[in-house]
Amino acid sequence: MRLALGRTSCAFAAVFASLVLAQAASAQIYSVNAGDDLQAALNAAAGHTNDSGPDVVLIGAGTFSGAFTYPVGDAVLIEGQGLDTTLTAPDPDSGAVLSLTPADVTVQDLSVEVPDSSTLVPEGGTGVHFDSGSTTLQRVFITGSGNGTGVTIGGATTLSNTTISLDASKDTTGIASTGPGNPSGTLSSASITAQTGIGANSNSSWQLDHMRISGKDGIVASNANVSASNTLIEKTVGGGTPISFDATGLGNYSLGGVYDSFIDQTSDSGDDAIARSTSVAATIDIDVADTLFGGFGSTDGGTAVAGSVSTAFTNDEIYATLASTPVTKVGQDYLPNADSVLIDRIANGSGGATDLAGKPRDVNFFGASGYDGDIGAFELQPHAPTVSLAASDAAPAAGASVTFTATGADQDPGDQLTYLWSFDGSPTTSTGSTNTADHSFSAPGDHTATVTVVD
Known about the structure:
By secondary structure, the chain is an all-beta fold. It has one helix and 37 strands. The strands form five sheets. The protein has a 27-stranded parallel beta sheet that branches. The protein is elongated and about 95 Å long. Mean pLDDT is 86; it is low at 1-25.
């Protein structure tokens, strides 16, 4: 017997290392260890004038409790030691755990515990608050077990490689815009679990790329502009909507989406994936393409009391139930089934470099010319099947019939296997999806049975 050899796939894990780069002569490093006064270090950095590179507040391992603020000052980098550094607040009404006022602030490599909020003040029960300016949050882990908000932004904020994990059954919001200005959020390679993933208000603008959002309401946008690509919005709490989009002020507002997946895991039936409304003479433009809607009655619905709404849904697929949606959940990913219409629907090169899982987008699964991307946030990666072979009798008599049984496996969901057989080098014959074949050898001696599995 011969065994058909198959490729094996390897799992890769990304590891992020925190580096403190050499600072310009005018910059200072303020080191804070367990038991030290973190607020004093923040005040010292805020009071120090630097001409070039940012000051660094380097927080060591340990838990630091308080309502920490960085008042008006020059650029600063606030850096912890990953999950070994935790900021928390003892009083849920004391404001944000970490509140940052000026521009050019970067927070990275630490964890924040959101206090349970008992009031409705904007910063009550908030993990990190950015007041204004250009700010960055990266490699931060934000958790909370009660009511509260992970991050609030009042200016231009970039967030990446960050996890916000709150209780989606409680009054929680992952990220929210605040203030009288025009906040903007650029979010990438991050995940949010909360009752409301993103509260996009105050004429804010949001760009989402490679994002995972789960909870009741994915994005609640009012007088905002939102675009998303390679993003999964997973509805896990009943009664919500992946995207609620409304206009209550004069202006033009847009919602754009491409290569996204909207998945309803609840028992809600017939609901809309996007709910939109206007109550003034405003304009809403919705343009969604190459997107999967799994478990929804319609892609969008709503009313326009005044103003206008224009919608364009291009190359999308919608399924009324999750059970009928041709995907298989593998870990946290909803991979399209190999035998579904989701495969190879996006023109070559137009799906971006990678899907939400970081896998290559330009993968031609069936070998058809001109198209290779799949509908939705995930790209099915082809894998060679594996096979083993067993005989009913390893030493049969001459002329006796032997049953050969092949055990084939393919990790691509929905892929079909075909079995091809050859005996002593004879031309191959197919048994289709049947994995057994009977054969007899008339002459004594050694003989070879070969099976090849094709997906």
